[in-house]
Amino acid sequence: KLAVRSEPPVRRWPDGRHVLNCRALHLASAAVGSKQGGASFEALGFSARLLQDAIEAQSGGEQALLGLAIKSSFLKCIDLSALGPRQVWCFWVNVFHALLLHGRLALDIPSGIQQVISFFNRVSYIVAGHVFSLAEIEHSLLRVNLSQPKLKLKRLFLRVWNRSDSDLENRPCLAAPPAKASQFRCRADWRLSLVLSAGNYSCSDSIPIFGNMSDEDFERYLNKAACATLAATRSNELPYALYRYRDDAPPLPSGVSVRADEASSELRWSCAVTRLHGKSVRTKEDITLMKFTNKYDWKMRPSLRAL
């Protein structure tokens, strides 16, 4: 049952957006556990199946793309109320990657920096009553509790429509089920920079699909996804994404003693990567020291696969 909201909706969405999940109406509430059109609407499981379909649609032709457009339209009024913090994070990572693949199929793979920037700022889905671009999912939802990117002229690269918690809770553009702001604000996880793919050669060609799993299985799978990204970089280098988000580097283990001026983000990221590879770190000498790469390859990969 939908709550009655007294506030008017925010504007539908900014001009210039490519909203890809408007092919079919599907405006009825997609409640948890319900079934509509044969699809189950447990939100996290649905996002995992949508992402799997998006990966398979790369070789499926026009019919697969049409099916993806129809299936993604169920996101418009999906119910997020049953998702806990970890499930919220997994849901939005899945949706980001599904939208990335959907946009590449519907609008062609962008080439050149300007096309790529436009692609990430304009390609969008309506999810739970709100429209979000790829840039907004990443920076307003997934990274909201992480550091800001170290990016010159950030305003020229990122065009984000900021909405308040009150807007997200009370002013959807569709009559979607009520959702708390926490369903749109993801918890901080420093591994995000090693998991989120931009679809280019600076990222892995493997896309993780997060479904319902135990905490232990989630940690193993998340670390596997992070290691896949590291494998796409030279062994003695840290990916450029870690340089861009260098303030997200986790602290050194309590037993590792270094001077304050030695605890650089490069050392902390080197320590985190060393531990991701399964090596125990008790002293500074246990850390495999690596350097940030200063190269970022904007060129998009021709296809992506499931991890």
In short:
38% of the residues lie in helices and 7% in strands.
Give the arrangement of secondary structure elements.
Layout lengths: L17 E2 L15 E2 L2 E2 L2 H15 L3 H12 L12 H23 L5 H10 E5 L2 E4 H9 L11 H4 L7 H6 L21 H4 L10 E2 L7 H17 L5 E2 L1 H5 L20 H12 L14 E2 L12 E2 L1
Parallel strand pairs: 1-4, 6-9, 7-8
Antiparallel strand pairs: 2-3, 4-5
Helix pairs in contact: 1-2, 1-3, 3-5
What does this structure look like?
By secondary structure, the chain is mainly alpha-helical. Helices cover 38% and strands 7% of the residues. The protein contains eleven helices and nine strands. The strands form four sheets. The protein has a three-stranded mixed β-sheet with strand order 1-4-5. A two-stranded antiparallel sheet has the order 2-3. A two-stranded parallel ribbon has the order 6-9. A hairpin with a 2-residue loop joins strand 4 and strand 5. Helix 3 runs antiparallel to helix 5. The longest helix is centred in the N-terminal third of the chain and has 23 residues. It is globular. 38% of the residues are buried. About 3% of the residues have low confidence.
